[in-house]
Amino acid sequence: MEYKRAQFSEILSRIDEPRGKIQVIIGPRQVGKSTLIGQVLEECRIPYDSYSADDDINATSQWIVEKWEVQRMKMVSKNEAKRLLVIDEVQKIKQWSEVVKAEWDKDTREKRNLIVVLLGSSRMLLEKGLKESLAGRFELIRLTHWTYPEMRDCFGWNVQQYIYYGGYPGAAQYIHNEHRWRNYVKDSLIEPSISKDVLLDTKITKPQLLRQLFELGCSYSGEIISLTKIAAQLQDAGNVTTLAGYLHLLDECELLGGLQKYAEDEARKYNSIPKFQVYNSALRNVYMYDSFTDVIENPKLWGRYAESAVGAYLASQAKIYDYKLFYWREKNDEVDFVLLRGGKKVALEVKSGKRTYNSGLATFAKLYNPHKSLVIGSGGLSFEEFLSLDLNLLFSH
Question: pTM (2 decimals)?
């Protein structure tokens, strides 16, 4: 049986509803957006047409108008009460949002029951268009990087495989040949994400510097390190402000972010040294060159891989569960992750090996009175339990 992600039922249900809002399916590259909408269309009960801006490299905003008019003509000629239009990779077309707004509003005025679903792989570009032109006209359906339960159920992975190889379904077939797996992730996943999602229509004065920052930042995932120190290791020199801007772009595309230190003073939060964090374990681990066997047999190595994997899960799920993610450190006390939602704070510490006591959690609890303080790993929730957890439970009573 073909595996269907949880959002399958949600999308199918929204298509069946009376025309209300444009449905926008958004998420990072290579998480299965096009596959998912294909599965939905197979079970869709209304007539539809599906197009992709990838199929026409010269597509302009007029291309959208033409596809839209075809749907209107079909509805008239076939006497259809309802129809579905799907456009994939819509953000590749310049001024797409203005045209979509005009066509959608025209259908609204003429009371035409044409359902519209848009898909895009660049959150940065897509959300910019939505906020500028389509405010109040859309709903977002977010797809994240694949979780451990999804990779387990679809590919039969155990938690060690997920922590090492990450959550890219397209790379799953190559994990028994680590050299091939690394090449696939770098060439077919990372490079298209950088060149098409980060560099596309974004003014980058030093693209090579951005690539160096990405590779070095991924290798430091789970570590707190200043951009000044990062700059000193890069061949193509750039100032800290430039690097911070590039890191923000990578974060918007759900590749690599820099977690800020938790503080109740907002200024201290956003002026802190970042903790680098990938959104998918594969993005870090392809640059490490420790073999899978070496990692699972070496407790010290395993701890670093596991902490980054927990952070990747938390970072990729933050928008879904509506929390902000930080770290905390004061002198010798540290908490790996702090989640903040609706005034509730959750402190999480990742532990592996024999050492389970952590004074950081106790110190943080005295200072900030968190809603929950949890250890993940040795002495607490197992990695398998946490990576399978409904994160809403962290904020429940």
Answer: 0.91
> What is the SS3 assignment for 209?
helix
Q: What 3-state DSSP class applies to 385?
A: helix
pLDDT beyond 90 at 94: no
Closest CA to 210 of 185, 188, 193, 229: 193
Q: Specify which residues 258 forms β-bridges with.
A: 276
Sign of torsion, CA 293 295 299 303? Answer: negative
Strand order in the sheet with 83-88: 48-52, 83-88, 114-120, 22-26, 138-142
236-270, pLDDT tens digit by residue?
Answer: 666 888 899 999 999 988 999 999 999 987 666 66
* Backbone CA torsion sign across 113, 119, 125, 128: positive
Q: How far is CA 160 from CA 57, 163, 341, 356, in A?
A: 41, 5, 30, 20
Q: How many CB atoms lie within 10 A of CB 17?
A: 10
